[in-house]
Write a structure and sequence with these properties.
It is a single chain. By secondary structure, this protein is mainly β. The protein contains 1 helix and 12 strands, in the order E-E-E-E-E-E-E-H-E-E-E-E-E.
C-alpha cells in the first residue's frame, strides 16, 4: 500500500528442514506507478509477486516495471550456495576469489534483455547483497 511500509522475507530450506536462514528480504514503502494500472494515490495497494528460480540465486519481482518514489530495499543472500560459487563441487580459493572480486547483484528487464550489474552493498559476514530498487524486474546474485 502506498505510504505504508510492507515487507516480505523468504528463507532457505536446508536439507535438514531448517528454515531460519534468510534468502530474500524485500521492503516497499512508496510504489508510485504500476504498468497497466497507472499512477497510485496514497492508500492504493499493489499485489506483489516474488518468483524464485530454485536452480539459481535469482528472483522475479512483479508487476515488472512497478516504479517507486522512495526506493524499495532488496536483500538477497547467496549463503545457500554452500560456498561453491563456481559449481565445480569443491569449495576452495577460486570460490573465495569469486566472492570477493566478481560476485554482484544483477538485473534484467526480460528474458530477451542482457543482464546488467546494479549498485549493491555486499555483506560478506552474512553472504548477502543489499540494494535500493527503483523498479521491479528480475534480479540475481551472480558473477
Amino acid at each position: 500500500m502506498r505510504g505504508e511500509a510492507r515487507s516480505v522475507q523468504i528463507n532457505y530450506l536446508s536439507s535438514t528442514g531448517d528454515t531460519s536462514f534468510p534468502f530474500l528480504t524485500l521492503t516497499i514503502t512508496d510504489p508510485v506507478f504500476v504498468p497497466g494500472q497507472g499512477d497510485l494515490a496514497p492508500g492504493d495497494s499493489v499485489l506483489v509477486t516474488v518468483t524464485i528460480d530454485p536452480n539459481d540465486i535469482k528472483v522475479s519481482l512483479e508487476p515488472t516495471g512497478t516504479l517507486f518514489g522512495e526506493p524499495a530495499q532488496l536483500r538477497m543472500s547467496y549463503g545457500g550456495a554452500g560456498g561453491d560459487l563456481n559449481g565445480d563441487g569443491v569449495v576452495d580459493g577460486l570460490d573465495a576469489g569469486i566472492e570477493t572480486q566478481l560476485l554482484g547483484l544483477w538485473y534484467r528487464e526480460g528474458e530477451e534483455s542482457t543482464w546488467a550489474r546494479i549498485p549493491a552493498s555486499q555483506v560478506v559476514a552474512d553472504k548477502s547483497f543489499i540494494s535500493a530498487l527503483l523498479h521491479f524486474s528480475e534480479y540475481a546474485v551472480s558473477w
